[in-house]
């Protein structure tokens, strides 16, 4: 089985999603993030400041959810989106600019995709010395259009069911 095209179109065609993290007492925190979806590895990546609330939450509770949606202001039955659930990993606890060259090489493709997709944002606000890469290992994805839903699960070995 493969990821349905409807999900891929939303994950590749949109620039930001809403990440939900929670702290050790399960207090939720939802904020927008720029993201990159990698279909081959079934991972989502985003960059954040290492001092942010979402990073503090991930360190306490790595279970996260991110929602990417398209809203129709005239007809909510045309709304569609993808919710992704998974486990967040801070790929390196060092800021991006201070990563050793061999580690940076592992994430160079993701970083270059960020630079390409978000060029205007990065030109206006370059990544700071406290920015880190966060990786979400996807466990489940749910797609909806209006009241209709479909979901896929991803096993630890990457098999889609």
Automatic annotation (TrEMBL):
Keyword annotations: Oxidoreductase
Coiled coil: none
Alphabetical list of InterPro entries matching this protein: F420H2_bilvrd_red/Heme_oxyg (IPR052019), Pyridox_Oxase_N (IPR011576), Split_barrel_FMN-bd (IPR012349)
GO molecular function terms noted in the UniProt entry: coenzyme F420 binding; oxidoreductase activity, acting on the CH-CH group of donors
Leader sequence segment: none
Keyword Transport: no
Organism: Candidatus Methanoperedens nitratireducens
Name of the protein this chain belongs to: Putative flavin-nucleotide-binding protein
Database matches in PANTHER family: HEME OXYGENASE HI_0854-RELATED
Lineage of source species: Archaea, Methanobacteriati, Methanobacteriota, Stenosarchaea group, Methanomicrobia
């Amino acid at each position: 089985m493969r990821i349905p095209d409807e999900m891929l179109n939303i994950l590749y065609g949109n620039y930001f999603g809403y990440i939900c993290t929670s702290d050790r007492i399960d207090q939720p925190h939802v904020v927008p993030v720029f993201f990159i979806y990698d279909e081959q590895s079934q991972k989502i990546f985003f960059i954040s400041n290492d001092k942010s609330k979402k990073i503090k939450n991930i360190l306490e509770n790595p279970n996260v959810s991110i929602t990417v949606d398209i809203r129709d202001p005239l007809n909510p039955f045309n709304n569609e989106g993808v919710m992704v659930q998974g486990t967040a990993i801070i790929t390196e606890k060092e800021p991006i600019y201070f990563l050793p060259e061999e580690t940076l090489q592992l994430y160079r493709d993701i970083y270059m995709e960020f630079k390409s997709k978000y060029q205007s944002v990065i030109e206006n606000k370059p990544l700071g010395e406290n920015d880190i890469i966060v990786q979400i290992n996807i466990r489940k994805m749910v797609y909806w259009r209006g009241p209709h839903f479909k979901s896929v699960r991803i096993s630890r070995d990457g098999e889609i069911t």
